[in-house]
Design goal:
The complex is a heterodimer of chains A (224) and B (169).
Chain A: H1 2-13, H2 16-23, H3 43-62, H4 73-82, H5 87-114, H6 123-145, H7 150-164, H8 170-178, H9 186-218
Helix pairs in contact in A: 3-5, 5-6, 6-7, 6-9, 7-8
Chain B: H1 10-37, H2 39-42, E1 51-55, E2 64-74, E3 77-89, E4 95-98, E5 110-111, E6 121-123, E7 128-130, E8 148-154, E9 157-164
Antiparallel strand pairs in B: 1-9, 2-3, 3-4, 5-6, 6-7, 8-9
The chains are: A mainly alpha (224), B alpha+beta (169).
C-alpha cells in the first residue's frame, strides 16, 4: 500500500534522487562509534538537532494554550500544566530541553574546537555555528520571560539592565527590547513572545540549513 | 514453498530494528504532545447547572423574555455570561422555555419581532420565523424548530438548565 503510493508519486515526480541525496551517504569509519567507541563525540551535533526538533514540536503544542498577555500568561501556563492532560510533560520537555540543547550545543562546539575541525576550508561553517549558538542563547533568554512568574520577570529585568550598559546605544537597545523605556510589562512580553516564536526560529531554520548544506558539501573533517 | 529457509539479510534486520526503535522513540515523543493537543475534545463537558430565573406565577401565556447569569469557566478565564430564554405557559399550563438562538445561522429571535407576524418568533437576519410552539414556519430559512431549555420547578420558582435540540425532546 505504502509502496504503491510511493511508486505513484515517484513515477510522476521522481522523488527518489531527492531523498537519496539527503539520506544515502557513507559514514566514514573514524566517525562511526561501532568502529571506534570514542567516535561518540561526533554525535553531539546530531543530538543538538534532535533536541531542537523536540523544542520546536513541544513549543508548537504549548502555543495552543499559552497567551502572551500579562493578565493571562501565568494563568494559562498554570492551567495547561495542571488541568490539561500531559501538560506537565509537554511543558517539562520544553523546559528541560531548553537546557539540554545548550549543553549539547556546547559539547558539539568543544568537539569541533579541540579536533580543529573548524580549520580551512570549514571556517565559514564555524562562523555559522557561532551564530546558531547566539540564536539558541537568544531563544533561551526570550523564552525565560514567557511564563511571566517572578523568576521570569526579574531575570528579564537583569537582562535589560545589562543591555542598557552597552555604550551609546544601551538605552535605545533596552527600549527596543522592552518596548518601553521604563516599564517591563505588556509590551515586553509580546515582544519577547514574537521574537521567541517567529523571528529567532526563522533565523534558526535558515542558518541550520546553511550549516547542514555546508557539512554535506565539504564533508566531515578527516581523522585526527 | 521451497526448502530454503527464509533468510533475513543483515540489511533487512538492521532496517527493521532501526525503524522499530526510531518509531518507538518518535511515538514516545509525540504521544504526550498529541494527547495534550486533543485534551479539549476529551474533557468531560460540564453538566449544565440549573439556575433560578423567574417565579412561575409571573409566567403568562404570552412568551416573555427572561435573562439570567451563569458563571462560566473558560480554561483560565472566568466570567459571568448572560443567558436568555423565551418563556410561557402552553394551553395545558405547562412551562415552555425556548432558546432564542435561530436554527438557521444563530442570530437572536424575538417574539413578535416583526409587526407583520405578531404571534410568531422572528429572526431579523434572514426573516426566519417560528410559531409560538417554537416550530419553524415552513418556507422560511430555519431548518428546524427552536431548542428547548430543560427546566425544573422548585418552590414556585422556574429553574432553567442546558438546552436540548427539538429532535431529542
Amino acid at each position: 500500500m505504502l509502496q504503491k503510493l510511493y511508486d505513484w508519486v515517484d513515477e510522476r515526480v521522481d522523488i527518489t534522487p531527492l531523498w537519496r541525496d539527503i539520506a544515502d551517504h557513507e559514514v566514514p569509519e573514524h566517525v562511526n562509534p561501532a568502529h571506534h567507541f570514542s567516535a561518540f563525540v561526533y554525535c553531539f551535533g546530531g543530538l543538538t538537532f534532535f533536541v531542537t526538533v523536540i523544542q520546536i514540536l513541544s513549543g508548537m503544542f504549548l502555543t495552543m494554550y499559552y497567551v502572551p498577555d500579562i493578565e493571562n500568561a501565568w494563568r494559562s501556563v498554570y492551567y495547561l500544566q495542571t488541568e490539561v492532560a500531559h501538560g506537565q510533560i509537554v511543558r517539562g520537555m520544553h523546559h528541560w530541553g531548553a537546557s539540554v540543547v545548550i549543553v549539547m550545543l556546547f559539547l558539539h562546539t568543544l568537539r569541533v574546537f579541540f579536533q580543529g575541525a573548524y580549520k580551512k576550508p570549514r571556517e565559514l561553517n564555524w562562523m555559522v555555528g557561532v551564530l546558531l549558538f547566539f540564536i539558541m542563547l537568544g531563544l533561551g533568554l526570550t523564552g525565560y520571560l514567557l511564563p511571566w512568574d517572578n523568576k521570569a520577570y526579574f531575570a528579564t529585568q537583569v537582562t535589560l539592565e545589562i543591555a542598557e550598559k552597552v555604550p551609546f546605544i544601551g538605552e535605545a537597545t533596552k527600549t527596543l527590547l522592552a518596548g518601553d523605556p521604563n516599564i517591563v510589562g505588556a509590551q515586553t512580553l509580546t515582544r519577547f513572545f514574537a521574537i521567541h516564536v517567529f523571528f529567532l526560529p526563522a533565523a534558526l531554520f535558515a542558518l541550520m540549513a546553511v550549516h547542514f548544506i555546508l557539512i554535506r558539501k565539504q564533508g566531515i573533517s578527516g581523522p585526527l | 514453498m521451497s526448502e530454503k529457509r527464509q533468510q533475513v539479510s543483515r540489511r533487512q534486520f538492521l532496517n527493521y530494528t532501526l525503524t522499530g526503535v526510531g518509531g518507538f522513540m518518535a511515538a514516545g515523543m509525540l504521544a504526550p504532545m498529541v494527547r495534550f493537543a486533543i485534551d479539549p475534545a476529551l474533557q468531560a463537558s460540564s453538566t449544565g447547572e440549573f439556575k433560578a430565573v423567574e417565579d412561575v406565577e409571573n409566567i403568562t401565556e404570552e412568551p416573555t423574555r427572561v435573562d439570567w447569569e451563569i458563571d462560566q469557566v473558560d480554561a483560565w478565564y472566568e466570567s459571568t455570561v448572560t443567558k436568555t430564554a423565551w418563556v410561557y405557559k402552553d394551553e395545558n399550563g405547562d412551562i415552555v422555555a425556548l432558546s432564542p438562538i435561530c436554527k438557521h445561522l444563530g442570530c437572536m429571535v424575538t417574539w413578535a419581532g416583526n409587526d407583520d407576524y405578531p404571534d410568531q418568533f422572528y429572526c431579523p437576519c434572514h426573516d426566519g420565523r417560528y410559531y409560538k410552539s417554537g416550530e419553524n414556519v415552513p418556507n422560511t430559512p430555519p431548518p428546524e424548530g427552536l431548542d428547548y431549555y430543560e427546566y425544573k420547578i422548585e418552590d414556585g420558582t422556574l429553574l432553567l438548565g442546558p438546552t436540548k435540540p427539538r429532535g431529542e425532546a
